């Protein structure tokens, strides 16, 4: 038996060696080939304030899309979304794009680690030659350097890239889905879903700017902070926010009523990752998502919508980064042993019970009215307060930085979009 076991391990080692392994040495060589790229700055070294709290860097490539001088023009085939499976921020524009039928208008390319230790951040280790098949670059940060040679921050996903010029155009995940919804309207089908109704953009923006610090960034605030004070502040904030949203969804099928909006995309991408991936780095959980009656039903309904389902990657998140010797360890974590093998379709089984909350149970998307032109749908997209340059203005636990007209547990558009 011992001999057979040794043979198995030797075979696995040989197989791994035969694979197209992306080594740190290769990544280092590519970084020098393209002009000496700097290593990726680390969040826990560069984005921690004096209290030990994580304060996320603002997005730097935030020139909007539009028709004004200096703005980016919406064009078919010019741009691609660079995104990562595990990144909730970058799954959002993919979901919005697919719901709106823009797959042939805005391309996409997934990223993965660079080398074994990801020293240079997002790369293309899963692609032939370890480079981007659309442009031939080795690192996402090359697009940033091409756009701004003096850029010093992290290259992040999602990034909208001009694939003709090979440069970053926009990495503002706070507003990127809104640009896709509004400025790319002329490329959408006439009766495409309306995820961002013009009359209610102020209310949607407010909720989105509240969801960012309290929910979407909640995991990262817990995972990256460096002091107990910062940890418990973000921990309590996150779970208190979930309580409010669960209350809101008691009488609303979706966050603003009968129809899916941009805000639902943002909440979904965090919820679907929590019980299988995010929780593992935040310590003791108050309770899992499946213990929230309304959030759990809401999550399961969205899970089965094709554009949402495409980006869930739950088994992949659960598996995590398994070590080569994981099968020899006595204590292998629950995610690797069990969660990564769960039948997700059974786990997320849903009987449609939340339809009773809707005046339009068989229609989950608001449609554009007949006769509305793409020009009619246009409006200036608001500036996100989370891109302000002053760190104090981006502290997530300061209530002044994410004000709402009404408590998050209340839908201010109840009966308006639903009419």
What does this structure look like?
By secondary structure, the chain is mainly alpha-helical. It folds into two domains: 42-178, 3-Layer(aba) Sandwich (Glutaredoxin); 190-401, Glutathione S-transferase Yfyf (Class Pi), Chain A, domain 2 (Up-down Bundle). Helix content is 34%, strand content 5%. The chain contains 15 helices and six strands. It has helices at residues 2-18, 24-33, 43-46, 88-99, 141-147, 176-182, 201-216, 218-224, 228-248, 262-274, 293-303, 306-309, 314-319, 334-337, 344-347, and strands at 79-83, 107-110, 112-113, 122-123, 159-162, 167-170. Strands 2-1-5-6 form a four-stranded mixed β-sheet. The chain has a two-stranded antiparallel sheet with strand order 3-4. α4 (88-99) packs parallel to α6 (176-182). The protein is globular and about 60 Å long.
Structural class: mainly alpha
- Helical segment count: 15
The tally of beta strands, per DSSP, is 6
Number of structural domains: 2
Give the oligomer, counting copies of the same chain as homo and different chains as hetero. single chain
Helix fraction bin: 25-40%
- Biggest β-sheet, characterized? 4 strands, mixed
Q: Which CATH class of the largest domain applies here?
A: Mainly Alpha
